[in-house]
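W.,

You were right to be curious about this one. When I first looked at the sequence I had no strong expectations either way, so I just let the prediction run and decided to look at it fresh. Below is the sequence, 460 residues in total, followed by the output.
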Amino acid sequence: MAFSISSSPAAVHSPSPSSSFEQPRAAQFGAFQPLDRSNLPPASVSLSRRCAAVKPLNAEPKRSDSIVPSASTLAAPEVVEKVEVEEDFEKLAEELQNASPLEIMDKALEKFGNDIAIAFSGAEDVALIEYAHLTGRPYRVFSLDTGRLNPETYKFFDEVEKKYGIRIEYMFPDALEVQALVRSKGLFSFYEDGHQECCRVRKVRPLRRALKGLRAWITGQRKDQSPGTRSEVPVVQVDPVFEGLDGGVGSLVKWNPVANVKGNDVWNFLRAMNVPVNSLHAQGYISIGCEPCTRAVLPGQHEREGRWWWEDAKAKECGLHKGNIKEENSNVQANGTAPAAADLFTTENVVSLSRQGIDNLLKLENRQEPWLVVLYAPWCQFCQAMEGSYVELAEALAGLGVKVAKFRADGEEKAFAQQQLQLGSFPTIVFFPKRSLRPIKYPSENRDVASLMAFVNALQ
């Protein structure tokens, strides 16, 4: 998807440095001095993930290769080849551990150019926009409009756009998915069976669509926001849940410039820079999400106690940063099941197979239609990451003579799936051709729609 560049010529110039800012750099918001690029870690580091060199924002369009050079050409044109490098982001995180948020933001924008964007939620994330503005580099901003935000939050969005001369790229949930959820469970089902299903429809899937057009994103996560899930957030990491532009595990990098910053220092920075803030903060709201799921907190309460207050206080994530949740907080039992986890691939285009159903599929010698089946576990973060791609694939194959299905293969079914269905790790995808007993296992970790479609087309 296309994102708008969020900085205008007026929005990207660096302000003139003041002598009062000439102080040692510190890894907190109090350090406002102009960025000294000479002290940044070198751009080239050893890599653990393959990535293509970023195309400059102002690069000239590629010339047409269809024009035949004349015979009088004396020198062959210079050929610029695509350079692939590998980057060790764990090492980079260590190098930037004591860097200021401004340095981290500058490094992120420098590395990924037009392939990175700031995720703006309408709370303290405005600090990220201010830091991006201070770097003097072009930057992009997107936000998830769930349709259930507070009026004050929408007004705040407008103020931020006007302050920085930008256009926030809004992502909206799929109307048919919202309609199906509300019609089947009502407007406030999350109070009864948890917020995960509603958040997946209104936030996680729109976020997944946004990130599929990027190679990196920038978040406002801090270690002190949620001790149960964010206490070990690094300043930069390979995203453990979502996929980026290239598809597959490890195709997206996540930057957290304020990971090491305390909440009080965030507010000191916002006040010092005269940055607009959501008016709900003055009413006792600290962490702000959707209106039905957010309330003010009392003095002394932790900021996340105002979010989903009716649920477990140790695992308060909507799914956008679910990779932070440690295994002990995911309610995984000894047999490998997680009864509290919401189910995946819940769409009319994906058939849910029971043990008897998968047994019958294995025994059929003359199938009238081929079947594509994902072996999954709802608690598996990699299954969650591929949910959007698999649902989209099912929609594309609907009516084309290929059945798309799912089989929950954790817990008591795991041994059976390993013996009969070639289950290695979650997720495993197998294809049952027509008139063939033996299922064929999908061999790649690239689980984007195009790769899965090529697999199906090659075998049916």
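Here's what jumped out at me. The chain has twelve helices and 13 strands. And, maybe more interesting for your project: The mean pLDDT is 78.

Coffee later to discuss?

I.
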